[in-house]
Amino acid sequence: MKLRQPQLDFSDMPTRWARNGEFAQSANAASTAFPYLEPFLNRVMSRARATIKGDTPADVELRSQISMFIKQESVHYKTHVQYNQILRRGEYPKILEFEAELAEHYQNILATKSLAFLTAYCEGFEMLGPPSAINWLDELEDMVEGADPRAVTMWKWHLMEEYEHRFVAYNVFKRIHGGYFMRIYAMLYQAYYLFSYIAKVNKYILSVDREKMTAEDVRISKINAKAAAKRSSNRMLKQFLRGLSPFYRPEINAEPRNYKHFMNNVERMIAPN
What is the C-alpha to C-alpha distance for residues 53 and 153, in angstroms, rounded to an integer? Predict the structure, then answer.
């Protein structure tokens, strides 16, 4: 893992930044979660780090991994705050209501759930990092062909780093609790809430877009949305099925084919911090 600071200006980037505008909007909907989700992850990891007090090499290494995880996630969510301004230009006013609901959700579970549950919740989300990285680095080139390079770079960079810290939340949960049923319960709990939230935001954004479209444009928009959802969801479903196994380990996740190539490119573009 390595801390990288992107230098990306989204101030004049269009909301529908890809040829398939519905694909762009699905990514935009997901992005609205990160300024709330990733600070939540950091708070949980910080609590967990405080409980790992040993001086064994394994303890020292795990605390170090948690610290870098927190640094990476902090840069991620701050970048998404900037990116999300493309949805805050007056066209989608209800976005603020959805975000307030999400912020309340994370505040509530931080206040009411055990550290065991919270670390399992984090692992349930982080388990999605490797398949998301493969999607963006290896399999969506046709979807991002001709797209705004700032958006593409941001998503690839973010998910490249999610792949890099794929072990951290798993190792923390294993140290704090490690139970199979707790992991599955929290994984399903977080997935239901997060994907329901993203679907709700995406439905709203597309409804606003379609108010300005002709009937034919709406028909095409619905076709594009289905194509985008299918491309993004197939690998996620497979990962969930794998995650249900009591034998799931992060080691089973393959490295994206283009991981090293993109990492080398992005490190030339983004000054290390």
Answer: 38
What are residue 4's phi and psi, to 5 degrees?
-130, 135
pLDDT tens per residue across span 64-107: 999 999 999 999 999 999 999 999 887 899 999 999 999 999 99
With CA atoms as reference, report the closest residue to 71 among 34, 46, 99, 102: 46
**DSSP annotation of 138:** I
Query: Do the Cβ atoms of 31 and 83 come closer than 8 Å?
Result: yes
List the single range of 20-34, 135-149, 200-214, 234-248 with lowest mean pLDDT. Answer: 234-248
Provide the pLDDT for residue 271: 52
> 253: alpha, beta or left, given left = phi > 0 and alpha = psi -120 to 50?
beta
- Residue 270 and residue 82: Cα distance in Å, rounded? 16
Taking the C-alpha atoms of residue 42 and residue 258, their distance in angstroms, rounded to an integer, is 28
Beta strands in 76-174 (DSSP E): none
- Quote the CA–CA distance of 117 and 110 in Å, as a whole number: 10
Spatial separation of the C-alpha atoms in residues 24 and 144, rounded to whole Å: 9
Among 167, 1, 152, 153, smallest CA distance to 74 is for 1
How many of the other CB atoms lie within 10 Å of CB of 242? 15
pLDDT band, residue 241 (cuts 50/70/90): confident
- Nearest Cα residue to 26 out of 220, 152, 202, 145: 202
Mean pLDDT of 38-58: 95
CA-to-CA distance for 180 and 18, rounded, in angstroms? 40
- What local confidence, expressed as pLDDT, does residue 273 receive? 45
Q: With CA atoms as reference, report the closest residue to 127 among 238, 46, 201, 221.
A: 238
Tokens representing 15 are 């909301």
